[in-house]
Every structure is written in structure tokens, then in C-alpha cells.
Task: structure prediction
Amino acid sequence: MFLADKSTEFRFLIDTGAEISVIPPRTIQERNSTASKLKLFAENGTTISTFSEKLLTLDLNLRRVFRWPFIIASLSHPIIGADFLKTFGLLVDMKNNCLIDTSTGRKISVQMMASSKGKITLLAADSPYKELLMEFPEITRVEAKAKVKHQVEHHIERTGPPVFSRARRLPPEKLIIAKREFQYMIDQGICRPSKSSWASPLHIVPKNNGDWRPCGDYRRLNAVTKSDKYPIPHIHDVALLLEGNTIYSTIEFFRAYHQIPVREEDIHTENSSHQAFWTFRITLYELWLM
Result:
């Protein structure tokens, strides 16, 4: 099943058997970028190298836009997988050759044809841990929206009144990127508009793969922030803790910063009676509105 996108001019393969949505590298930077640690596997067990992710805004003729971070992978054809379909509530009607948007009830016809692409999975077919990981699928699922399952909250102790800096104008192409990035975070529930008195300038910094990353200039905020003098463990002490161990594991968080919520009393609302501020997620969006 193939579907054309008006924005990117991609012809996406709609594959319900693919666990994750991917696009091939298009630019020289994307083709020459360093492979990431994330590995994908084809149905025949072949490893598919990945590089990074790219946020795309798709127009699928469904009367709404779809913002989604696609994984850049060594494939010849872009694929919309089960993660995309599940998040946006899209149903594949094989009998009537159409895609149904359950949110609006709109249907669009799609082109049906046989494909040899095969499904894409995050688990290798010969992995000794496959059965265990399939029992707990949330461990390997790359979710765009953070699902907080802990009690850790973000809080910055500061002194004095709120500080702010004048917003800096962005070139037109960077302004488009900033709007896209923050609209995506709003859609995912990561941030929301603010009337906070705290504000920091916004920068758009290029990534190695040719994409862009929003960053903030927090020098004024850092100047009024109370420093945490808790000492970092010495590397020798850390090495001693590993003595005698033979099995090690690593973990890599997906959009780790967004998995730590801001403390409720530090979130500025219209009815707040105390001085509060938004951190990275909200401050940058506020600047974009200025």
C-alpha cells in the first residue's frame, strides 16, 4: 500500500508489519553521517543501519497535518509503520483500498501493490532475548511522547526576580524549523504556551545529519541559579564498584529531557500567585510567539 505526501514529495509504503517509521537519507550530510546505536532488522534477519531521526510534517490529504520523527535508515523507500498509524489513529482498509482517519472519519484511496520490502522490527530474529522482550514490548518501543513512570521532577533554585533577554530574530528558513519543532512538542503534550516572565533567546543549531536542533541561551538564567555543589563520583571509585562483575548493560533514553516533568509549583499559569518560570520546553516556545 503506497501513499503520496504533498509536503515532502515522498511516496510512503504503508506497512502495518513495520514497528517503526523510517525514511532513507536524502542529503549528503544524512548519507555521510555516523551510524547511530539503534539497529533495525528486516524480516530475513538482515541488519539495517540507522543514522538519526528527522521530524517531518506530512500532508496526506486527510484535512490535518501529521508531525512525526522518522528514523533515517539505510533503505531505498520511506515507510510509515505501526507506530505512526497507532499514534494518529489511522486504519488500513485492505478490502476497499483506503486509509481511514478515525479522528475525522475521512477516507482516502491508496494504491495497493505487492511489495518485497518485508517488515521492520527492533528485535533480531535470532536474538536469545526475543521472547522475553516480546513479553514486555514497551521496553523497545520508541515513543515520541514521554510516559513518565517516576517521581523525579525538575526544579531550579534561583535568586532575585525573573530574568529575561530580548528575543533574537531568526532567518525565515530557521523560523519555519522552529515553528515545526515546537508545534510537534505541543501536539505531543510536551509543552504548552506560557505567560511567564522568564525568557531566553532561541538558537537553531545544525546537527551532523543536516537536521536542526532548537537550543536556548541560558546565561542570564544560569547567573541567578543556585549551584548544586554535590560532588561527582571520582572515576577510581566508580571503577572499584565494577570489580568482580562480568555482565554489564547500557541504556539510552529517547528524548531523555522530556521524560523529566517540571515541578507543578514551578509551572507558571495565569492564576499563579507566586513567581514561577518555565524551563527549556516552554521558554523557547514563548520566544517563538514574540
Remarks:
- The longest strand covers residues 47-59.
- Helices lie at 28-32, 82-88, 130-135, 172-187, 219-223, 235-241, 280-289.
- The chain has seven helices and 13 strands.
